Structures are given as C-alpha cells and as structure tokens.
Amino acid sequence: MTIIWGGLALGAVYALVAIGYNIVFISSKTFNFAQAQLMMVGTFVAYTGLVTLRLPVAVVVLLATAAVTLVAAVEERLAVRPVEDPETVLVTTLGAGVLINGLTQVVWGGQPLAVPFFGGDGVLELLGGRVYPVEIALVAVAVALVVLFGWFARRSVTGLTLLAMAEDREAAMLRGVDVRRLAFGAFAASGALAGLLGVFVGPKTFAVATLGASLALKGFVVMAIGGFGSMPGTLVGGMVVGLAEALAARHLGSEFAAISVFAVLIAILLVRPSGLFVRTRERLV
Amino acid sequence: MTMGLWRGLRALPTWTVPVLCAAVLLLLPAFGLGFSATRQIQLACILALLVSGLNLSLGYAGELALGQAAMYAFGAYTAGLLSVAGHTDIVLQLAAAGLAVLVVGVLTGMVGLRLGSWSLAMTSFFLVLIVPDVLAVFDDRTGGRNGLSGILGPTLFGRPLGPTEIYLVIAVVLVAWFAVMRNIVTSRHGVALRVLKQSPVLASSMGISVFRMKLLAYALGAIPAGLAGALFANLDLYVSPEAFGFVLATTILAAAILGGVTSVYGALAGAAIMQFGPNQSSRFQEFALVFTGAFLIIGGVLLRGGLAGPARRAVARLDRAAGIRPRPGAGAAEAAVPRIRGTELVVDGVSKSFGGNRALDGVSFRAEPGRVTALIGPNGSGKTTLLNMVCGFYRTDSGRILLDGARLDGAAAHRVSRAGVARTFQTPSVPDGVTVLEAVAAGRYSADRVSVLSAVLRLPRFRRARRADVAEAERMLALVGMAELRDEPASSLPLGMRRLLEVARSLAASPGVLLLDEAASGLDEDEVERLAELIRRIRRAGGTVVLVEHNFRLVLDLADDIVVLAHGQVVAHGPPAEIETNPRVLAEYLGATEEVS
Predict the structure, then answer these.
(1) What pLDDT is attached to residue B100?
(2) What is the rounded (10 degree) CA torsion for B552, B557, B563, B567?
C-alpha cells in the first residue's frame, strides 16, 4: 500500500504537468514543451523562499506564483507569439525549456535541493500503508484542480470563451473574442499554476535541474493516455503512469521505472491512438 | 569581372562545390593538423551526421524526431559490443550499427507516428531518457552506468587503423552519407516529402502514403546516427551513457535549426557552429544549455530556414546580378493532350452524416469517359463532401463508389489516387521550396514508381523515370500555358496560376477520373477560357471529368451532364438544356421562385 500511495502521489505530479499542457493546448492548440521546466522553477523558488530566506509559506507561494507567471509571460512573448506554425512552436518552447534548465543550473547548481513541506513530514498510516502528508496533498490538489477547471469551463464566461476558441479559433475571433489576449492569459495562467504548485511538488521530487526533462515526458505520456485537452483524462493518466512507475521500480528494479512508462505509452499508442477520453474525429479537407 | 567568375562557377554542375569540399576534408591530414584540431573536426563530422539525419525527418517530412541521441547510443553500443567480442572490422561494425538503428527506427516510428505531430517527438525523446536504464538492465554486457570499456582498436580487412586512417574513415562516411542525402532530397522522393510537409491531404490525394513516407524519412534519418555512433565508439574506444543524454539531444536540434532543417549542407554549418561554439570552451560549459536554448528560440523565431535561407537568397541575388536566367521551357509548341484511358465512376446511393448533420443522403450519379459531369448546388449542399468521399478522405455511411466496377469506398486516400483518381482543391495547395516543374512532376509520383534505393544510387531506372517526369511535366505546363514559368518557385505563383498548376499536376498522372473542385474560381477571364478549352480537350482525349463549379455559365457551356445537389440530395439530373429550365433547380439554386410560378 505504501508503494501505491507513493505511485499515486508521483502520478499526481505528472497529472499536474499535464493539466498545464492542457490549459495551453485548449486555448491555443499549441504544446508548451517548457511546462515542466516552469514547474521546476517553481520548486526552486520555493526552496529559496522557504530554506534560504525563511519566509512564511503564504509569501513563498505568492512569490513563486509571481515569478513563474513572469517567466511564462516572457516565454509566450518571445518564443510562442512570433511563431506561426505549431511544429516550430514545439522547437521554440523546447528551446525555452532548455534555456530555463540552463539558467536554473547556473543559479541553483546541479545538486538536488530538499524542499520542506509546510504541512509537516510526519509519516501517517492510511489504509494499511505509510504516506507522507505531501503525498496526500498532491493527490488532493490534482483532483481539486480538475474539478475546479471543469466548473470554470462550464460556468464562467472566460471558460466558455476558451472552449469556443478551442473549437474554432476563427469563429471565436469573429464573435469578438480577443484570441491572442486569451491565449496569452491562458499561458500566463499555466505559469501561475506551475509556480503555485512548486511548494507541493518540490517536497516530493526535490528541486533539481534534471527534473524538467523527465517531468515533461511523463506529463506527455499522461496526456497521451488521457487524451489531448481532456482534464479528467489527466487524473486517470497520472494514476496509470504513477502506479506503473512505482510498481515497476518496486518489483523489477529501479532501472525499469522509466522503461515501464515507455511500455505503457507504446501500448496506448497502439491500442487507442487518440487517448482514452477523446473521441476520434474524421479529418477535414 | 567578379560577375564573370560567378557565371563560370554557376555553369559548373551543382555537385562541383560539395565534391571540392569533400576533397579538402579528405586531404586535411596531409597539412599536419594538431591532435586537438583533428579531434574537433572529427567530432564536428560526427555531429553533422546526427544533424543530417534529423534534417531528413524534421526538415523534409515535418516530423520532429528527438531520438537521434538514442540512435547514436544504439549505434555506438552495437559497434562497441562487436569490438569487445573481437569483431573489430570497421566496415562490419558500420553495417551492423546502420542496420540495427534502421530496425529501431522502423519499430519506434511505427508506434510514434500514429498520433500526429507531437507523439513522434515525445516517443523518440523518451528513447533518449531510457537509454541509461536499458543499459543498466543489461549491465553485465554493457557495463551499465560505468560505461563500456575494453573496446579494441578498429581494423580494416585485418589491418589495424592508425589515427589518420580513422580520420579518413570518418570523413569518407560523412561524404558518402551527404551524397546519399543529396540524392534522396533532389529526387522525386524529396519532392514527395515536401508535398507531405505542406499538406498530408494533398500528399495522399497524389498517391503518397503519408504514414509510410514519414516512416521512411524517420527510419532513414536514423541510419547516419547509427553510423556516427559506430565511428564515435572507435574514436574513443570507450562509451558511457552520459554521452547520449538530454544535452546532446538538444544540441543536435539546435545545430539543425541553425543550419536550416530543409537543406542538405546546412547540417555541416550547424554542426560546425555548435561544435566550435558552445561545445568548445570549458569556461562556457555551464552556459552550454543556456546557449543551446537561446539558439533554438532565435533559430525558430528569426532564422526561418536557418543559415541555408540567407545563403539561397544570396545565390539568387548573385544570379540576377550576373544575368543568369533560367532556361526557357522547351516543347511549348507541341501541346496536345495525349490519349487518356478514362474510367467510369459510379456513385451509388451514398449517404454520410456528421453527427446529426446529414451531409449526403442517398446520392447517385455516373460519370463516363469522354464526358464532363458537373456537380452544382448551393453552398453546403454536399458537393465537396461528395468529392472527399470519392477520394477516400471520408468513409461512406452507406452506398457504394465504383471505379470501372471495382469498389472504391473504404479504400485509403492514397489507394484511391493510385487507382487513377486525381483531383484539385478549392484552396490550391502548393508545396514550398520546389519549382513549378517539380510541383507538376510530383503528380506522377504514384504513376511511375521508383524505389528510394534506385534514387540514391541513380540507377538507370531512376534516370528513365526522371526524364519521363520532366518531359511529361513540361508538356502539361505547355497545355495550361505556363511553360515559361517552369523554373519559378511554385509557392510564388498568384492564385489563378496556382489553380492551373494544380490542374497540370493532376493531369500529369494521366488519371482515369479527374475531379476539379471549383477550378475556375479566382481565375481571370482569359484563364477561365484557357481552362475551359483544356477541359474540352481532355474530354476529346477520352478523359472522365467531374467538375464542381459555381460559375453557372461555364457549367452550362462545358458539361454534358449536370447533377444538381441540394441539402445532400440529388434534386435534378440531366443535360444542360434541361437543367437550365428545370423549375426546381431555378428555385433551389438560383432562388428564382417568382419567375417559375
């Protein structure tokens, strides 16, 4: 059970990355390769705030949110907006990710930094397994975000506009939707989310410069399983990936953790190429 | 004077400069390079091989493959393990490494290409991530994270190779691969890849299997990475997982973007810059990622086409300054439509719904050889949907589509095209980076098939097909009155010309059925007349023409049969004289109810 709790928490982290991907994907049909790196910056800022500067948690959360929103906004302006076709966006956002990776390495060094969790680190007994408070928090945050997003998308004007834009960008434009502003807003929001989550993710994964690449890929696998643009899909995908990784590491050895996730990805692509939660659509000429 | 020199240079065959560069590269050791300079050049050559393979899949097929570093590792370990086992022959190792990565490329490509544009990028990137893990699983053989040591020095036909000979082997492999790459890119397969990158829909309507073509580019692109790996293992006699990580993967991409992904020799420039730039000085080592990232953004945003872009423009400017003009097209005089073996197209009770919207409801008609069948109807009546069903882009819900009695419904788009159905599009789709002549010749891709191997080796079969391609394309251009534009970039044409180009391209395949989707819209009067005359000639030559058109005058003028669609149903069917006076048609289509009553 301990393994399962650990796997679920890890899966929640991946689901959180995928939620970030989805926000950008829904609003602009582009894929922000650097999403995981944004989250990584969040963990580093959380470390600096909590450990180096010993600031109160609320201040650190605000600080991390503001900092990563800024980074995301700059990324959108420099690396996403000037680019037209989605393939090049893939390249430039990857570039942004690499750049962020390099800068964090220069600023914080290459060693993993332990980020303390504000909810304490006493081990709890739950359903016959041991679990850290941060692990419960991660799962709760992921579920809460998906529920919140579902509510937001259906009940608020902005949410509905986002959905309309995802459906047909030009039609939304003709209806007077400022598509570019909204896309920018969504991008910044995905950054804000990544920053906010730093205090949750950091305690589980450590703040380390290699986090980006691995989170980016696992987040993608989650998205591939759940379906592009599907928020509930991220929860299922996260669960599958997290459990596969944790169980493989426990029973087959740590070198099989990533390999098993890769196997899951291959299987999903072979069986259900559009993901579990998205219906296939016939292509249009 | 300088212009004269330039003219002389341009008069030489296009391979002269690359061959000279290759000769210099091979002769470099004779000038007594130092150890460090030699090593840098060797590493730049290896990087160039990796980059060139990426160019094939990213630049030409439009698929981002981030797994070159993993293929590189695979090649290196294949060669290293062979060497440890005592098989030190470099040719054997290169062959084994190339073959091994080809297999990995085909397998991962088949999976990764199933989910559109990002999935190959991610699947292949994932390969890079699991390289250390896979090596750790087999650590008794590969040495796991400690690396593989004990690689023996390479031999060639039983003779050990010294440092200079190793340099020569690397240089020869590099030159050979770039020759292969150039031959692929300049062949009809290269044009087919560009068509694919422009529009998969267009590609499949020309008989190109999108999946197979992308797989081909991706798997072929893995080969140089495998060769590079084998060379690297023999250069260092030690390989460890750290050499093949995230940093290398992004360096390869940055070099490709810098040099220009849609170019053959840009890979050399990009690799040289990355090797002698960020990879070079250890002082900047910690900033290497920062530089790579910045290069990726700047390259993607500003340098569209990389360094190859400005280079091409410079050549074009010098050409203009020196007064070099493309040769005028030959064969403009004899422009007769060849005899066409038209086939009979039967649409029988075809229905199609999109969600709750019934786009087609039991539509039947017949298009016969030597006749022009027009489909008319108001917007949204299902004309283009019907064409898309015939072409295999949509599946029929019910009903049959027959081509000379053979079932066509359910076949994939590229199969329909190969069965002899050619079409033009409402919005003309013209690939970037090819000349008008090449764009038209691309229409013959499926008509006259030539293997990639035969293109690489320039076998007689390839040369024959190429001559036929050029001759046929020139004749088609003459038919549409565009012979003098043969060497212009196809994407620079105005709308009317693009439409005529599409018609020429569809005709180049000598199709059994020609589907023209609003071919006359956007043409000026002169062009409409030229198009009408061309359609009449195709009919006289025995072709089957299906015309979707809004220009009612043109339809009445040209068509033998008119099928009128409204709300997805056939409301009238008959010769022009009948349709012109049919009250239902006037009501539905022309909105002239008051006149009829």
Answers:
(1) 94
(2) 0
Nearest residue on chain B to A103, alpha-carbon basis: B290
3-class SS letters over B153-197:
CCEECCEECCHHHHHHHHHHHHHHHHHHHHHHHCCHHHHHHHHHH
C-alpha span between B384 and B35 (Å, rounded): 66
B138: contact with A, CB 8 A cutoff? no
Residues B6-41: tens digit of each pLDDT: 777 777 777 788 888 888 888 888 787 788 888 889
Q: At what angle do helices A2-28 and A35-47 cross, to 10 degrees?
A: 120
Cα separations in angstroms, B400 against A184, B345, B350, B406, B570: 48, 11, 6, 10, 16
**Half-sphere exposure at residue B190, Cβ-oriented, CA atoms within 13 angstroms:** 20
Mutation to test the A interface, candidates B251, B289, B394, B515, most A Cβ within 10 Å:
B289
> Which residue on chain A is closest to B297 by alpha carbon?
A92
CB of A95 closer than 8 Å to CB of A82: no
The enclosing H or E element of B86 equals none
The Cα B481–Cα A214 span in angstroms is 57
| CA pair distance B353, B356, nearest whole angstrom | 7
Distance CA B492, CA B511 (A): 27
DSSP class of residue A274? T
Least CB–CB distance from A285: residue in B291, B292, B393: B393
- Distance of alpha carbon B14 from alpha carbon B319, whole angstroms: 14
Answer whether A279's CB lies under 8 Å from B391's CB: no
Is ipTM strictly over 0.85? no
Report how far residue B55's alpha carbon sits from residue B61's, in angstroms, rounded to the nearest whole number: 9
The Cα diameter of chain A in Å comes to 58
3-state secondary structure of B65: coil
Are β-strands B372-376 and B159-160 bridged in parallel, bridged antiparallel, or unpaired?
unpaired
> A261-282 burial, b for 16+ CB within 10 Å, e for fewer?
bbebbbebbeebebbbbeeeee
Set of chain A residues whose Cβ sits within 8 Å of the Cβ of B357: none
Dihedral sign for Cα B303, B306, B307, B308, please.
negative
Which residues, given as ranges, of chain B have pLDDT below 50?
329-333, 593-597
Cα B151 from Cα B448, distance rounded (Å): 48
Q: pLDDT digit string (tens) for B292-324?
A: 888 888 887 876 667 777 788 888 788 777 776
Which residues, in sequence order, are CB contacts of B39 under 8 Å at separation 6+? none
Q: How many CB pairs under 8 A join A and B?
A: 139
> What distance in Å separates the CA atoms of residue B118 and residue B138, rounded to the nearest whole number?
30
Are A238 and A176 spatial neighbours (Cβ–Cβ below 8 Å)?
no
